Amino acid sequence: MATITIPPSMLPEDGRFGSGPSKIRPEQVQALDAGATTVLGTSHRQSTIKQIVGSIRAGLAEFLRIPDDYEIVLGNGGATAFWDMACASLITRRAAFGVYGSFSAKFADSAASAPFLEDPVVYRCEPGDCRLPEYTEYVDAYCWAHNETSTGVAAPVHRIAGSLEQGALTIVDATSAAGALPVDISQTDAYYFSPQKAFGSDGGLWIAALSPAAIDRAYGIAQSTSLEGVLRWIPPFLSLKSAIENSRKDQTLNTPAIATLIMLNEQLQWLNNNGGMAWATARCAKNASLLYQWAEQSDYAHPFVADPALRSNAVVTIDLDDRINAKQVTAALRENGILDTSGYRKLGRNQLRVGVFPSVEPADVAALTNCVDYVVGQLWE
User: Fold this and answer.
1) How much is the pLDDT for 227?
2) Please, what sign has the CA dihedral across residues 328, 331, 336, 341?
């Protein structure tokens, strides 16, 4: 394929559109530089790092508008580790899952492989659609993803009817939703995510907004493992009780990536100073609408998610006609500095996937659509 050079005047100022890791603003890197000799390379048990963690917890409580009796808890390992932690420390016996893509399926798979849990009840649908778990007898947790990163589907977040009376927890994966989609945290017991999406940081950390019921569940399960005849081993790394107690001291169980904490803290201050969740979600909605409107008006592209009510304002998926090779389009974009617009590989569609998190400028999204049109015109004119 011949090299395509997009006119410089058409290019976005910043060409990073990744669905995670996502764009990191220059001001976040400057915050790292400012702490190069005073924070980086120092112990996470000391006051300087604890102050950053405390600022993160307070900033997230403000941004997410958590109820007064909820807590912000953080730990090592990312959202992937939290799936196993939830199996070890939040699901008592059996959970019900909504599965509608790769990441919502992985949590269900973790529960299915846990030897001390009964097989989960899985409510499944095809990618591009959404399926929440339904009320199910004898389950103690309902689990799904607020945003399915692999498909660009945004799911509603509300308690399953009858779940409170049942004593079941609502556990929602918010990895690509938190900071980009509106949410009422009181409708959840564990709203958890990694910071490498809307919060513009690196991975390796998980954060959760936990209800009193979730905290009580974690402590209750931890206590039950000491009883005779209980066959459940909770490794220290997967102990939510331990993570809660460390978070209350503004620290993590093991050494975290200090750079991630610094960038996350700076991003939270930027988001809250600009207007918090209302501002961030409105900005993401504007970014997403530019892409959806462009695709609906295009003669070769269309939104993958058919139902407009389910289309994500965090990760936008656009199908291309079969006559247009998406891999060639994304390769040409990359050669011109426009990065990470490929579809999710395991989904296997002829597709573009674009992260439109708060750090992404609307003007850059508009420029992206023009650049795609230019590349397609050069390749298939």
Assistant:
1) 63
2) positive
